[in-house]
Structure prediction request, 219 residues.
Amino acid sequence: MLWELLKRILCAVCSAKKMLWLDKHKPQLKIIPPEVQQRLDAGNEFGDRAMSMFGDYEEMTIYRPGTTIPDKKAMAEKTAEHLRLGTSVICEAAFINYNNYCALDILRKTEHGYDIYEVKGAPEVHEQFVRDVGFQYYIVNRCKIKIDRIYIVTHGNDENAPFVINDVTEQAKSYVKWVNDNIWNLNRMQKSSEEIQVEVGEQCCTPYECWYYNYCHQR
Prediction:
């Protein structure tokens, strides 16, 4: 059983590397399954509602002219300006460190620095959510922003008060070494001109069908 678990973990890591490479070099091949897109849309709607959970806020989203592609550099510059202004709640706060980018759902100013709130439309916290926000913390910390607490906001049963705040500070911060050990290799791999080769398997459909499924299975 231990070997099977390790094998699944290794397959998932390799698949993530291939997906990252394809996102960089062949994004036109991406096909998002309808059921996945439906979940993404629902999550985006929940995230939009969550922006106002602390009252007034400033959103950093800026798109490249004529597209729906985020202008990362412009967003990071706008975020830096609002940090200088002392804005209390910044949504989609963007940070770049050595070409590594992240956008925080909610960055809230406190007397101890800032708190991070990562919003997920799921009913419970999954480990992948913690890893994601751990990566965000790594980038923001390297940008010299003092982060106090880290939270994941999940979807509760009460639609009148659907936001459930889960403190994952210790777990998220514990991923710093793991991110640092892997992020530079992933950057080098992403820039490679040679496509990452990974055998197809159950990881292609777990926990949902990969959006490069058709491309990988027709070869």
